[in-house]
Amino acid sequence: MRLVGWWLFSLLLLNVSPSFAQSFTHGLSMHGDLKYPASFKNFAYVNPDAPKRGELVQANLGTYDSLNPFIVRGVPAAGVGLLFDTLMVQSQDEPFSAYGLLAEAVRTDAARTFVEFRLRAEAKFHDGSPVRVEDVLWTFKTLRDQGRPSYRSYYANVEKASKVDERTVRFDFKPGVNRELPLILGQMPVLSEAFYQVAGFDKVSLETPLGSGPYRVVGLQPGRSITLERAEDYWGKDLPVNKGLYNFAKIRFDYYRDSSVVLEAFKAGQYDFRIENIAKNWATAYDIPAVKSGKIIKEEIKHSNVVGMQGFFFNLRKPLFSDIKVREALNLAFDFETANRTLFYGIYTRSHSYFNNSELAVKGIPEGEELKLLEPFRDQLPRDLFSQSFRLPESKSASQLRLNLKRAADLLSAAGWTVKDGALKNAKDEPFAFEILVEDPTFERVTAPFIQNLERLGIKATVRTIDAVQYQGRMDKYEFDMIIGTFGQSISPGNEQRSYWTSKEADVVGGNNILGVKNPVVDALVEKIVAAPDRKSLVTAVHALDRVLLWNHYVIPHWHTSGWRVVYWDKFGKPTTRPEYGMGFPDTWWMK
User: Fold this and answer.
1) Does the residue 300 lie in any domain?
2) Which of 46, 364, 395, 412 has the smallest set of CB atoms within 10 Å of its CB?
3) Mean of all residue pLDDT scores within the chain
4) Which among 245, 209, 243 has a CA at the least distance from the CA of 226?
């Protein structure tokens, strides 16, 4: 599940066998028993005795103008999610288990028609006021009605929210199967009704919000930096789910406008930790004395997480990209092999799925239960989907690339486009031209060879780089032709797929259906995912969705790796056990 902020986690629910409501429990798990009993002291991947000290400095590219991460308007500051606690929190060493944070206990029934959360009596906001059931109810209603579109999508199936008693809140669901919904509500950050009724919820503001989380804001230089300080009186610091976490006394985020300056600032010791996403930098930029002497540690951390999809994203709202033959043609013009060899030092793997690095990635041709899901839609799907395994074009040689471009030209011709005086034009004599919008200048070197191949087809493509604030505004209103985008995924896809792909989300301002997909087959398959009664059914439905998305050529897939490439100054301690589904940084690390 993709949600905003450090504090929003992907959770799943205990598969309960009785038809009646279970009793209250300290945690919920999708598959089998919880790893940690009610009496657990701390997670296995933390050091419960980690010292609480030091200042962690990190870098961000761009700027910010808001401390409100819950609304469409504005660009929220990094780390602001650390101000807010959620009802439950996910463990990082189980695939899908969650334990109570603000809520000391939770219960539901086997059919998942409702969920109840019992709040901890000691839960408090930073001003000492208690976290109340009324705050939970107000937060739910406000996020649903005024928050980012994803909240409206996630909470749409809640029929009623009500107060059971002074510490218990209940959510009843609309008819239909939505097994993940109790967990989505467990992800809810609880906001202070009293604070926002005065401050206003829907404002772009740099006023420090009242939270209940482990950190509070202590320093602001708008657009330049933000500093958070660990709340020494944090109400939840001794909870088992928090032991060994949040070990830095301060966390500062510095902002930079240029990616090359960010790199040099790290090597100069201006900040402490860096995830290196640029292959050239990973291969060449760290051949420096500090790395050789061990002052800077360069490390690749493998993980078991699902890798989503990065690629060139079509804006399907544009008539230019409405024809699947056009989209397939442009896919053929992207030369991954040459880019991987000449730009990326051969370290990437081409992405052939929206759920790479997992059992969710589709392979082969549809068979068995997946075929049964797809069969009713046969007339609405590409014919080859049923008889061929999806593979992206390869260009391991110049002759292979020429064949790809020849195939692309044939597809464009079949779609009604003809080369006239060196330019590709349609029947109205309109040229085939579009703009690729990016916010990171690094991507200009990726787009340049792609644009050259498009020129050989008579297509005029240009690239424009804009700053982060402009870019976010354009994204919220879908004012672009093509972008380089990403879709993050979890090991258990669910309700977030509605916001990614469904027709009703395609025109919602600030929504997550960036592509503008409006496909009734996709809509139906997403509902199969949401209603999946068990893991096997979920995997089958995800395979079907993955296959349909791929065969419709909604994106031009890029590449992925199955690990994090990181560099950091040798000033940290970290637990001996790393969580299987997380990096551990920064939550479990500490300053030496």
Assistant:
1) no
2) 364
3) 93
4) 209
